[in-house]
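Re: weekly structure request thread

Next one in the queue (522 aa):
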Amino acid sequence: MTIYKDPRSAPAWELLTQHADELAAVTLSELLAAADRFDNFSAEFEGLYVDFSRCRATARTLELLTELAGQLELEQHINDLFGGATVNVSENRAALHTSLRAQEEIPREVGAEQEHFLAFADAVRSGRHTGFGGAAIRRVVNIGIGGSDLGPRMLVAALGGQSGAGPDVEFVAGIDGTELSNALEGANPAATLFIVCSKTFSTLETRLNADSARAWLLQSLPADAVATNFAAVSANVDAPIEFGIAQDSCFRIWDWVGGRYSLWSAVGLAAAIRIGSEAFRELLAGGASMDRHFRTSEPGHNIPCLLALLGIWNRNFLGMEHHVVLPYDQRLEKLPAYLQQLFMESEGKAVRQDLAPVDYQTGAALWGGAGSSAQHSYAQWLHQGTAFAHTDFIATVNGADSSPPEAVLQSLANVLAQAEALAHGHSDAALPFKAHPGNRSSLVILLRELNPHNLGLLVALYEHVVFVQSMIWGINPFDQWGVELGKLGARQIAATLTAGEGAPGSDLPPLGKQILKWRGPA
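Done, posted below.
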């Protein structure tokens, strides 16, 4: 049985604390001056290359971090994850999302469901699966929220522009109706396929949007159109059929698939329709390849372990509160939002798996956006601001076929220039407002090209970074109890707002009364 404990009890933790004090006066410029710095602080795996030479760390840092991982039984935690142990203690579940992309030993039920939803995706693309009256599907609307939205939304943005792409895909998550209205603008009801993604099929935002979508469809078509123009992805196998969806258009996920780890499952159906089953299988293969690397490589040569441990170093020993992700490929503009949920929902915990309170720092605030735009917005904060942040730059060496070669080179030049400027800074005694302090940590992840396989590598890499960090901190990266309280309160307040202030039992805070006062025309 794996034991979760206070990471500060490990002897390496105190040594790392002392080491951080010793390094306080050493600058990144000094570290980068070493002739072998780049060779010793970079790693390559298939179509992915990581340069972490601009992290404020030395060989001794990596040695101590590796010792910390060993003292906190990281290898056993990894074996537990892949072996199906109950790593999600608070919900008494395994976390077997890696089995969704397994290649050699895929569980039978997982393989069968994968073939089911990928065959459906190709049937929609080819026109064999049609909407009401035999209409070819021209628009797909994915209705979900959180992990049922951010993952497939990111995949479509990243890979959906490839030649031979399938029907247009829109995403609806917001509860106020705006996204749904925009997604349906100009749509032909018979040629529109709705995919309702919800593990429970009862998530408030998703059900409201699904009900609104059904009402929109039935304004033009008979009730039978729900069976032809809706599909569902859920662990609740009965609710979609009760909604009116045909059984052959219902796809299963399992309770051991966390939402933020689910894009590899039928939750990725909308993306599979857009890019095709072959490309989706390449995505799965890339993720599986990173899994093998993670399982079999020693911590000192294991890219997810190295990046995770450097993240521990940044957060707990160098005091960095922010983790900024800047992809310099516009196709990856949705990646920071996807990673925001992956990291912050997983690492935003104040209780360990052994129920002891956490009184040390865990996950940093992760945010970011497309790098080119960031240079003209918050890059100023990164270079001359007073807070501490670590930046991940992500770049594609060979851009999209439609990108002019000189534009791709300019983008890559900006990545290098930004990373170098953060590291070395700039001094100007005469004009201090032009001075840049430098000594600011970053790493660069290069993809040879943005294809499904390499994107699979990248996403699985970040998943494993989250897992390693969570195991070091002793927290559960697979639950999200902090999401539930606000949902419960919203249901109660919504019932009161609907009933009105004078209804029996109504008890609104002052702001709720102001909302009621302003409802309707001025």
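The longest helix spans residues 452-473. Residues 107-280 form a domain with the Rossmann fold fold (CATH 3.40.50.10490).
Next request, please.
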